[in-house]
Write a structure and sequence with these properties.
6 helices, single chain, alpha+beta, two-stranded antiparallel sheet, 15 strands, eleven-stranded antiparallel β-sheet
Length: about 325
Amino acid sequence: MMMSRVSVTLAAAFVLLGVAAPPAQGDPYAIFNRTQEEWALQKYPTNLSYDVVVHVVDQGKALTERYATTYDAVKGTIHVNPISDYERAHPPDGRGVNFFFFGKQLNKAARPIDFMGVPILEPTYSFGIGPHVVGRQATSQEIVNEIRRQYHDTVRPASSSLSTIARLVSTNHAYAITYAGREAVRGVDCDHLSLRPTRNPGRNRLRELWIDHATHRTVRAIIGLNFIRGLGTKVPWRIDFGMHSGALYIASETALAPVHTEAVLSGESSRTYTVATVAFENLHTQTTFSHLPSFFEPPADGALLREPDDIGDGVWKENGGARPI
């Protein structure tokens, strides 16, 4: 018992000093807690530009489209040019309109211009692993407060910040976590965690995590469902993370099962994508968004790909009852 208390106090001291404390070997809750802290210590630019790349395989044909996007981290707003490069290269001419009679399509199905909807996405999203802190390094107490807020921890902080951090691991029960061993992912030695949500599986979407054993950064995740509504909410997804300019970003998101669309009377037919991925490319910072007048955020009722707030609130209600894996 004494050794356990000393270890926890040392781990808390490492955090206060800004040094990565090695979690207990194979302790899944300590490993998960450390990767949450690593996310909270990431520093991102306030103005970020990038391309969201959507790739699908439709009836054996590989299709890719790119959307130029900007993210204002101070305001928390995402602006996207809804006209993808694919649409510019294949402008609608009226010949691809689908015709329906009493719900039955009368002509050959026209391929949708936006394969999965216009993506309103940003690459610093953590899928609820950790809070997003903009522009500076968070203090250890800010990390604790934010993770507590997200996971509804009702334990009041003690007078000592050391004991506050030490108690965090034992009070976060959003998931039942088991240690699945050490595995290599993309050449990185990782601790593999399996997670089972103890409540609200639509909000707590994490199912598997691979965490860099040396740096505690998240390398890969499996989530039970993706996005607020639409195609991704029906199947699990693999999320691969990478580093850019010293910070952790989403590299790609890959559906782990075929993605089925639904027919709508307004034009687009039902389809099945045997492959569906979303990637973030060409990340770069800029001091101003001088091109923003030509960009806009599409209306909320359009065919959009959106993520809920970073802890996932709203997925279950807006998803219309889709069942997670």
